[in-house]
TrEMBL record:
Keywords: 4Fe-4S, Electron transport, Iron, Iron-sulfur, Metal-binding, Repeat, Transport. It comes from Fluviibacter phosphoraccumulans. The keyword Electron transport applies. GO terms for cellular component: cytoplasm. NCBIfam families: di_4Fe-4S_YfhL. This is Ferredoxin. PANTHER family: PHOTOSYSTEM I IRON-SULFUR CENTER, PHOTOSYSTEM I IRON-SULFUR CENTER-RELATED. One of its GO terms (molecular function) is 4 iron, 4 sulfur cluster binding.
Amino acid sequence: MSLMITDECINCDVCEPECPNEAISQGPEIYVIDPNKCTECVGHYDEPQCQQVCPVDCIPKDPTHEENQEQLWAKYEKLTGK
């Protein structure tokens, strides 16, 4: 399951540079996460780095993009070529 950024986002800019897949970008009003690039940091870290640095806890799992660990690993391998 990829993550999403809710409208509680304060645009503090700390999540974007933490994403190893470059899945986070500035949207029209708040930061957004590209579900095609988000692996919840699987393959890179034990926990999603954006969630770790977010000061307002506005990055939950995205219920519209459910994926299991196997699917997240496959996405990581596709994105990194490993």
